[in-house]
Amino acid sequence: MSRERSGTAQDAGKSPLPPTEAKATDTRERSPVPAPQPRIITPRPVPVRPAYRSRYGQHVTTNPTSRDHNKASVLDVLLSHAPLTRNQLIELTGLSKATVSRAVEELRADGFVVDGGVDEVTGRGRRSTYLDLPGTTGHVVGISFGIQTTGVVVADLRGREIQHMTVPTPDHQDVGEAARWLVDLVDRTAASAQGPLRQLVAAVPGRVRDGKEIFGPAESMRIFAGSGLHRAIEELVDAPVLLDSDANASLLGILTNDATVTNAALFSVSTMLNFASCTDHELAHGSTPTFGDIGVLSSGTGDDILDELLSTRGLLRFARKRGLDLERVEDLWEGPHDAAARAQVLEAFTTAIVTAVSVVAVTLDPESVYFVGRLSPLVDEVLPEARRRLDRNLPAVPEIRTVPHLIGLSTARGAVYACLTMAHERLRDAVLGARRQSQAAEQSAPAF
User: Cis omega before residue 45 (within 30°)?
Assistant: First the structure.
């Protein structure tokens, strides 16, 4: 992912090299957590509106022809559904056989189509060849830069996972050093990836504005407030870089696996409380640092705010003040404790859950509210009582559930989905503008 290892931006703009067989690479020494099976992390069916709208990419400035639009439509389907046969392409695009065949051959010449396996035929007739994306079209990287654990997921442009890695997050004292550490981790995880890096998205425990500027990070990550981390990473890789909150990435992971989710809210209850929401399957982004800072609201218990009861560090502090001798927050539900003191903590925690859900229910009207993070086991314990209170207070209560969460990986996979949305959109724009650009430059190679 570094400039020396990933090639130049000029290289990324050329058609990929002819596809080659990917060599089996033993990454056990480099990757503590190998991925034995490729994992598809794009949603099925593909939603009409993408969950992550690309607001920072390039846009078409030429006047594409109908032929360009047809070619872009075929590429869209390949990016979302490959491998598939020509007949499936015809069915999914609604284009004629001749139009699809012409578009496929043009995309093949551009390096975006390769023949895969052969379809099984049960009766008489010619066996169909599957069309696929070659690895040389490139890859994307999603990062979960957590306080305790950092995860990296590398996927091809179809969303098939190439490799992943999770490691403990060291205590960084310098933004530049942290960026170099992250890029080195990406380099090691993407050792077997082919083609140019098309997009990198890093999810962080805090609120992010304009994909660059971090607000309200966790206490131990205060040095990353501002846009310094984005600049530092951007200087080290030859690809677009975007930062987003870990809550947004977690919600994207849910949207990836369930395209039927439309309006939802998510609370990330870990070292700090973070929040995300979506409307019509699209994530909400604010224009000011205040947006999403739900942790500053009153919890409904004394003078405590939500962040002091729905975060691990805050709840641990609250429990110790009530006389519970806890070394870590997990001891609250894993070990025996004084019943009266624990009941006080659970009562305050339940009240905070009810307050948080009530706030989003009356303002955002979500169908579902999700909880992810280290405090999820405690959420499960108090959820029946929280639902009873919400049923008494509200005329309609959203569905509330905790979501299984792989520390470091679930959030990174959500970041990959954001990568794919933006990378696909740029490739489509490139297809739509390639003919006019090539005519102006008097060259035949498309501007991919």
Answer: yes
Which residues are CB-contacts of 323 (< 8 A; sequence separation ≥ 6)?
338, 341
C-alpha–C-alpha distance, residues 62 and 434, integer Å: 9
Q: What is the pLDDT of residues 350-384, one digit of tens each?
A: 999 999 999 999 999 999 999 999 999 999 999 99
Report residue 6 as tokens: 């990933």
CATH number of 289-402: 3.30.420.40
What is the model's pTM?
A: 0.80
The more confidently predicted of residues 171 and 125 is 171
Domain boundaries, the chain: 289-402
Q: If you count them, how many residues does the chain have? A: 448
Q: Is it the case that residue 263 has pLDDT exceeding 90?
A: yes
- Residue with tokens 């929280």, as numbered in its chain: 386
80-85 LR contacts (CB < 8 Å, sep 24+): 80/42, 80/46, 80/158, 80/424, 81/46, 82/116, 82/130, 82/131, 82/132, 82/133, 82/158, 83/116, 83/117, 83/130, 83/131, 83/132, 84/130, 84/131, 85/119, 85/128, 85/129, 85/130, 85/131
Q: What residues form DSSP beta bridges with 115?
A: 131
pLDDT cut 90: percent of the chain above it: 63
Checking phi first, is residue 414 left (phi over 0); if not, alpha (psi -120 to 50) or beta?
A: alpha
436 CB burial (10 A radius; 0-12, 13-18, 19+): middle
Q: How many CB atoms lie within 10 A of CB 280?
A: 10
The pLDDT-based confidence of 36 (bands split at 50, 70, 90) is: very low
pLDDT at 257 over 90: no
Q: Which two tokens stand for residue 250?
A: 């977690």
Please give the structure tokens belonging to residue 48.
């009409």
pLDDT value at position 173? Answer: 92
User: Among the listed ranges 5-14, 123-132, 133-142, 299-308, which one has the minimum average pLDDT value?
Assistant: 5-14
